[in-house]
């Protein structure tokens, strides 16, 4: 398997992006920097801010699908199974550290058609184990530029601060 680069933690936003924006998701408990030219979702009734990221502006409406422009999604889960399962294959799987916490970074390829994915689609996923036993999962989404989104996600994970109220 081809090795996926692992992030080296840096000071918040320092030299990762030329002029980063940052946002905090109080529900999931993290702060992250992202490129100044990108967009993040604002809080909407019933939806916390700062969990969707895209290179173009997008609108988010409660109860609807994630907009097609979204390239990166960050969510918090109580449980996580990051292994292979039907319909996908893990191409690379590495241990890493994000904000001093144990994490894995995986590149995954879809092998069976689903409603959202076609065989050959790929995504990269960071699974960060939090001190309370939950997980932050940051994933490239179905945007048109997988390699670009993967690069931005790697940089975002270098700035991730977990445990932020």
What does this structure look like?
This protein has a seven-stranded antiparallel sheet with strand order 3-4-5-9-8-7-6, covered by helices on one side. Strands 1-2-10 form a three-stranded antiparallel sheet. It has one helix spanning 146-159; strands spanning 21-25, 30-34, 39-40, 52-54, 72-77, 88-98, 101-110, 122-129, 135-140, 161-162. It is 8% helix and 35% strand. Mean pLDDT is 84; it is low at 9-14. With 165 residues, it is mostly beta strands. It is built from one helix and ten strands, in the order βββββββββαβ. The protein has one domain (21-162): 3-Layer(aba) Sandwich (Protein Transport Mog1p, Chain A), CATH 3.40.1000.10. The protein is globular, with a radius of gyration of 15 Å.
CATH topology: Protein Transport Mog1p, Chain A
Give the N-terminus to C-terminus distance in angstroms.
Answer: 38 Å
Order of helices and strands: EEEEEEEEEHE
Strand order of the largest sheet: 3-4-5-9-8-7-6
Mean pLDDT: 84
Q: Based on the structure, what is the oligomeric state of the protein chains? A: single chain
As a whole number of angstroms, the C-alpha radius of gyration is 15 Å
What share of the residues lie within helices?
A: under 10%
CATH class: Alpha Beta
